[in-house]
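Two quick folds needed for the group meeting slides. Do the first one here.
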Amino acid sequence: MTEPNSSSDDAGAIWTSIAKLHVCMLATEEEGHLVSRPMASLARPEDGRIYFITHLSTGKVGEIGGSAPVNLAYADPHANTYVSISGVARTTQDRAKLRELWGFYAEAWLPQGPDDADTALIEVEPEVAKLWDGTRSSLIQSVKMAAAVAAQTPPSGGRVGEVRM
């Protein structure tokens, strides 16, 4: 998985990883600078979208506006798994989709509910995703690091791949 492709297995690995990792850093452009903030995501491969429930009045919604390029960065250092997704974000107030996605975490952050005028969705259509998957035991990783130091050559980082979503 080193060349951009559309393999359903590779895309499936991306969707599985982001569903499991759940929280990402959502990067948008603000006045010529990239700005990132942690956001809980709702991965929906059946829609080909990643959703974020938020306040319409927040800065990130204004940065996205009708449509904007974004990057989503997911990380699980304990499992040595990292995902970067580039895509296009749109802001919507689709009440049916908000009700469908509504859950415990949304309720905690937005107690006013899915029908409130200030409740919105950011939906991201992924275009390209990159997965770094070094899922090996920490003992094996430690041995590889020690061998790399002894040999003065970087260790193998595991599987790295790019997928056109």
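Then this one, please, same format:
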Amino acid sequence: MLVPSRVLFAASVCLAAALGPLACDGGGPLLLYVPTDGAGGGDGSLDGGDGDGSLDGSDPFADGGDAGLYPVLLSITANTAGDGPVDPGELVVSRDVVMGTAVRASLLRRSPRELEDPTLLSSLGDDAAYFASRGLVLSYTWSVVDGASNGLPPPLAGLGWGSPVVASAMRASVDLALSKLPGGASYFVVGRDVDQYLSAHPSERASFEAFAKDFLGYVRAHPLSPKGARVGVGFSFVSGAPKDASFATLFAASDMMVVSYVPGLEKATAGSTGTIGADVDMMVEIAGDKPVMLESIGYPSSVAIGGSEVAQTLFVESTLSAILARRHRFAYVNVDMLYDLGLQRCAALAMKKGVPVDGPYAAFICSLGLRTASGVDKPAWPAFLQGASAFAPP
């Protein structure tokens, strides 16, 4: 159980000082062995929960190698501090900061359009090699869609999901991405917030479902996919998509329930922190006998859209606590993102998504970092360090 915020902040200052910004234990990443994976206020209470998982090995998501314990894979999207073009030195610092935390995994994400860029393709290989060589479990997301945005290269975007040309090109994209992942990856996700895209393009739903099923099947059977790798289609939780029976086909085709949990993103207004326990309970209920993967979690600190650093800290504390209490059902949790986006990078992302650079959506997504764009810790950063440590061995 996490300690209250005001106590946590004082205690975590000592933790941060002890660790240092680039701290790392010489033996590699800390292992998270866990029994059985509007700034609307609220106290972040757990609202019930599943309790502890069984220790007799009967749980379907148990990792047999952990002697009846259930590990939750924790990761942080390692974007860089600063602004404008990424400096190689910033990338080194970002990677080292991530490795100084209690993470066991690294989530990598590219759109098919980005894979056509030699620089971005090279960076995928570099990131994957770095984290894999340090023992982290790799996860990969193909952002064929990201919310309402289409991630296909322009020549393909207008052909439709049922086009044989699109299917062939996306299989080639899978080949290319997997060739850059040392030893493959243990988790593969197709699309992020797919429900938002299909809600904005209802006529494409049937063709996208067929496309996604074929895509998942190709990844499962790929010779570079490790045996036992899980695949799934990414939904947005707070939009209500997982509860929508019309998405049953995509959910049934997935090995796990993959959701992003960024309250308020769909309205570009910070959501409530008072329903986190109930939300996590609902994830578990909807997932049924499938494990839950949180492809991204985050909360904005921008006051312009109703967020704050205090609310962001409470979100981190409460979400990690809620997952800890239901840890036998969660396989993977990824925190987006390490740093806020500077003005130039925020503007570039807003333009990519087709939203106003100075609008509420940009203010929301660019303030999700646990640290500022200049690299200064927000209160949410020591809260994350403390929360992650609760997953460590007793």
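Slide caption for protein two: Residues 5-20+28-389 form a domain with the TIM Barrel fold (CATH 3.20.20.80).
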